[in-house]
Amino acid sequence: MLTAELLASSLRMAVPILLTAIGAVYTERSGIVNIGLEGMMIVGSFWASVGAYFYGPFVGILFAMLAGAFLALIHSVTTVTFGVNQVVSGVALNILAYGASRFLSLVIFGKATTSHHVSGFSPIDVPILSDIPFLKLLFTDISPIVITALILVPISKYIIDNTVFGLRLRAVGENPLAADTLGINVFAMRYAGVIISGMLAGMAGAYLTMEHTGMYVEGMTQGKGYIAMAAMIFGNWTPTGTLWASLLFGFAEALSLRAGEGSIIPYQFIKMIPYLLTLAVLTGIVKKATPPAASGEPYDRSIG
Amino acid sequence: MKIRKLLALSLVILLVLGLTTGCGQKAEPKKDEKEQQEQKPEEKKIKVGLVYDIGGRGDLSFNDSAYAGLKRAEQEFGLEVTDLEPSSGGEDREQLLRLLAEDGYDLIFGVGFMFTDHIAKVAEEFPDVKFGLIDGAVEDIDSSSNISCLLFKEHEGSFLVGAAAALKSKNGKVGFIGGMKSPLIERFEYGYLAGAKYVNPDIETFSDYVGTTGEAFKDPVKAKELALKQIKAGVDVIYHASGASGVGMLEAAAANKVLAIGVDSDQSLTATDEQKPYILTSMLKRVDNSVYETIKDLVEGRFEGGYRVFGLNDDGVGYAVNDFNKDLISDIQPKLEELKEKVVNGEIKVPADKNEYEEFLKTLK
Predict the structure, then answer these.
(1) What's B297's domain CATH number?
(2) Percent of chain B whose pLDDT exceeds 90
(3) Which range marks the domain in which residue A277 is found?
(4) What is the tens place of the pLDDT at every residue in B184-224?
(5) Residue A219, min C-alpha distance to chain B (Å)
(6) Interface residues from chain A to B (CB-CB < 8 Å)
């Protein structure tokens, strides 16, 4: 059962979750909860189709990241500057993303729910790794975005743990008042955290459109933005933890696609595996979660 | 402080605008109609409305076929037509039907079996409006009803493409990918499997479904993964009945150089150039004809309620032959025509569900 083919499928299913979940780490560590990640993925998947259709894959991914960043900017303005409830703002953005993508799709492609066919990056082989027999299937013919996502894990770990930027990001997420007293611009740090998350969620959307199916289909994100948040929590707000959590979710999904035939478990239950896993994780069966102390709390200088 | 308030206000306006433009689609056509009515009050055009299923226009499959029928009727009879998309989860299906009915439409189509209950309800409230329900059957209606249920023998068409798949498979393995697991999609599945087994009783078959809700018709990511799984298992011809999810399957098939079979519309015509050589054929479900015929009946004053079933005998279903696949399919066409003949004259009874399929398999041995 545990074949390289299953692992390859797990990896493909994990990548959009992983990218978004890494983004979620940035925003949450800065103290902002971003439920709007699903919406940012949606606009990413749509704008990737626009960019890729008219100008090619590089512009596609650029558009996707800009669109994600734009939604994230709205989220930061409402939550950081105006202290709006972060969940409310995020939910509003998800609704906005759905409506806006549908409307723009009608304007640009003349149909509400799908784009035209688009082409992505040409798949590449990872040197060295693709020569190892068992890993061959896993690392040949894969999308550059998959590699980017995997590389982003150690990079993000380094940024968050070892750089001044990372230290400040964590500081405003743990105790914004203390950070502010030390002269750190709390607002700027939080803007940065949220916008990075928007760009990564946009890239995840671009992966779905350009690399996986070659077309934008409305609703193709299928709630992966929420699963990414679960992966981030499961990964205990760290990039490496997030990687394993995303791979687990990807694996569960790949497994549920394979366990269909001939098994004694009713079909409907098998399709529930990834969601049951999410529930189990969120209810804390797996591990006690320790979120950043100020996560979800708006920071207001006059109150502190 | 003033700037902050101004910024806040403009943000709110932006958000509201974003929301209203998202929903504004539905209101727009209504305005146009009113203007047109004011311009020509003396000449009353027949008004036909159509509400799509999940997946919507542009699914390159089922809904697009309905749209084609509507457009053909519009050009031929000079109708006034409107087509509407339900919200992404389809929650406002009933609302849209009612909107059209209140707006004085003469005939309203609901595309897809999900409309069954909604049409039954709205049709009762608006007895003067005619309704066309594609793929669904409202119970206990007769020719005096204002609902016409347009049904298809998908299993018969699927039988032929299943036979085509078995004839073309080199590995002796053929696959099927369905959208939402439901009796309707199972008709495609068992018809297809029966066709494959009829031609080659030893053939190995694979069936997978994307999911158990309407969402399964727009999840190309999962459809592609399922296709890749089947291809890795040795399947070299795959058929799908999964609406917009199917683009994922076509992508996987072309990338791995195995044959794919489209569904509902002729999917060779809308595929990319890289995909075209790998599309063996498409199971045609002439939703366009059924829409067109129903409108034609209304225009000529012959509209009848009840059930209309389209099968192989009246070309309501079939398989596609076009410029792109004619070389691929020409060698097996005589055989397919022979099978079609047998199905039409009742020599072969194509199974439409699991029990019938198991019975059918017994007759083969």
Answers:
(1) 3.40.50.2300
(2) 58
(3) 4-120+144-282
(4) 899 999 999 999 999 999 999 999 999 888 888 889 999 99
(5) 7
(6) 5, 9, 12-13, 74, 77-78, 81-82, 92, 95-96, 98-100, 102-103, 106, 109-114, 117, 119, 208, 212-215, 217-220, 222, 254, 257-258, 260-261, 267-268, 271
Which band of pLDDT confidence, cut at 50, 70 and 90, is reported for residue B157?
very high
What was the pLDDT predicted at A33? 93
Tell me the CATH number at A192.
Answer: 1.10.3470.10
Q: B27 — contact with chain A (CB < 8 Å)? A: no
- Say whether pLDDT at B11 is over 70: no
* Pair B217, B341 in one domain: yes
Residue A304 lies in a domain: no
- Over residues B59-78, mean pLDDT: 87
Q: Do residues B93 and B179 both lie within one domain?
A: no
Pick from B4, B88, B247: CB nearest A98: B88
* Contact (CB, 8 A) for A241 and A294: no
Question: How many domains does chain B contain in total?
Answer: 2
Residue A2: the pLDDT is: 58
Q: Cβ separation of A214 and B85 shorter than 8 Å?
A: no
- Asked if the C-beta of B10 comes within 8 angstroms of chain A's C-beta atoms, the answer is no
Question: Complex ipTM, two decimals?
Answer: 0.82
The predicted structure's pLDDT at residue A126:
79
Task: Mark A9-30 as b/e (b = at least 16 C-beta within 10 Å).
Answer: bbbbbbbbbbbbbbbbbbbbbb
Contact yes or no for B88 and A106 at CB 8 A: no
Residues B164 and B104 in one domain: no
Number of independent structural domains in chain A: 1
User: Residue B338's domain spans which residues?
Assistant: 154-284+318-364
Closest Cα in chain A to B271: A117
Same structural domain for residues B129 and B245? no
Range scoring the smallest mean pLDDT among A13-17, A26-30, B50-54, B255-259: B50-54
Q: What is the pLDDT of residues B102-140, one digit of tens each?
A: 999 999 999 988 899 999 999 999 999 999 999 888 888
Could you say which residues from 39 to 58 on chain B have a Cβ atom under 8 Å away from some Cβ of chain A? 55-58
Residues B67 and B215 in one domain: no
Model's pTM, two decimal places? 0.82
Same-domain check for residues B303 and B253: no
Which residues does chain A have with pLDDT short of 50?
A: 1
Asked if A213's CB is within 8 angstroms of B247's CB, the reply is: yes
